[in-house]
Amino acid sequence: MKLAILSRNSQLYSTRRLVEAARGRGHSVRVLDPLRCYMRIETGRFSLHYKNKPLTGYDAVIPRIGLSVSRYGTAVLRQFELMGCLSPNPSDAILRARDKLRTYQILAAAGIDLPATVFGDNPDDTEDLLAVLGPPPHVIKLNEGAQGAGVMLAEKPAASRAVVDTLRGLQANFLVQEFVGEAGGSDVRCLVVGDRVVAAMRRQASEGDFRSNLHRGGLAEATTVSAAEAVLAVRSAHVLGLSIAGVDLVRSRRGPLILEVNTTPGLEGIESVSGVDVAGAMIGLVESMKSNG
């Protein structure tokens, strides 16, 4: 199989592991910076070039597209798709999942449990918007944040109003969610590949923080998810159209709640704590997609 990996940096751990896993299974693989790909589009004919040479003959592409290049990166991925390449995470699915508001609407419509969430645009509605959600603490998230960036905790009504007013002044898109205090600053990252959770880790926020992201100093340990949690994680990915995803859930009194669905989950943390060859599982999924047509 001739495989492309869309990544801006071939030296990143996740990218290197995917290359290693693909070559270990006998595949030809090349890392392509999506911003160096350029395309020709005409009726019924689509082509891609990279550094002055055409890109042809690829069977599949694995996108590792960062948030900052979502628009152009997904356009390149779509071009590959139009040229007949398979992708475990299609371009439209990535765009759906990158928009938190859209993600929560899709998940909730599918009956998937998540923290209560509110969204509004007009400053005149702030008081009632927060009242609709309920009393603080409130978690306030930028609509397109990642790795814990743009996530804030407001513990009093005045603090919630101040953060909301500030973000409105910056013309930022944001959501406000209930805070699940009983989780104690921990969540569970489920790595979904195909129809199963291949690895999971419990992440604990560092002292003085409520964000459990490893990039924010959180600690991680391998964990086992329940059957219900595994089903919820896989359903969350599939409802968005993703075959590979990092699905974050929090354990609450009313059961597991979905926090995030990440289209480009990092592999270093979860492989190191779980000992699972996640990159190999991802390549195996692409192989099965190819063999099934």
Overview features:
33% helix, D-amino Acid Aminotransferase, Chain A, domain 1, four-stranded antiparallel sheet, single chain, Rossmann fold, alpha+beta
Domain module tally? 3
Approximately what portion of the residues adopt beta-strand conformation? 25-35%
Instruction: Give the CATH class of the largest domain.
Output: Alpha Beta
Helix-strand makeup class: alpha+beta
Report the strand count: 15
Tell me what you see in this structure:
The protein is an alpha+beta fold. The protein has three domains: 87 residues, Rossmann fold, CATH 3.40.50; 126 residues, ATP-grasp fold, B domain (D-amino Acid Aminotransferase, Chain A, domain 1, 2-Layer Sandwich); 63 residues, 2-Layer Sandwich (Dna Ligase, domain 1), CATH 3.30.1490. The chain contains nine helices and 15 strands. The protein has a five-stranded antiparallel β-sheet with strand order 13-12-11-14-15. The protein has a four-stranded antiparallel β-sheet with strand order 7-10-8-9, with helices on both faces. The longest helix is centred in the C-terminal third of the chain and has 14 residues. It starts with a strand and ends with a helix. 39% of the residues are buried. The model has no long low-confidence stretch (mean pLDDT 92).
